[in-house]
């Protein structure tokens, strides 16, 4: 269960100008909750594929970033910046793929054409873990280290707001959010306990 407290700052002069949302997400202990995906969904505003390729790198024997969001239909590159080889894979329903042992940059990016959550792993380094949220909505982002995400130039309409976090224990219910001209601030509290991030295991002799 989660609760949303909304604070509305209306423009003094009402107009049809686009609105903005400033969203702060906190955990069960009222601490900032990074890595929360916030997606605004409306049938008139479907996802637009990225014009440039997104990237999830392998660096310092970890995936970076830990959580990323890409619009449905986007291409993602998986460059290996480590000295050792990696074997990237996913068995997720939204995308099943495999990039066998490689160094450097694979020849072709991977197409993420189905909305959903994709869990990434490495067949060589079991502790490597990351997530790609493939968004069906046009407006989506991941909270920063302060638990904050901001959307600007939103159309004045009502969205379904979907939330997702890798440490959630149950599906988070969607909420209706009406965007007005001007700025709105939303404080969202999630019943989530933060966990340790994946950490590289140093084995020595090349850390293979």
TrEMBL record:
Q: Which UniProt keywords apply?
A: Signal
Q: Does the keyword Signal apply?
A: yes
Looking at the record's lineage, which domain of life comes first? Bacteria
Position of the signal peptide:
1-18
InterPro entries (alphabetical): CarboxyPept-like_regulatory, Cupredoxin, MauL
User: Would you tell me the protein name for this molecule?
Assistant: Protein containing plastocyanin/azurin family domain
* Species assigned in the record: Rheinheimera sp. BAL341
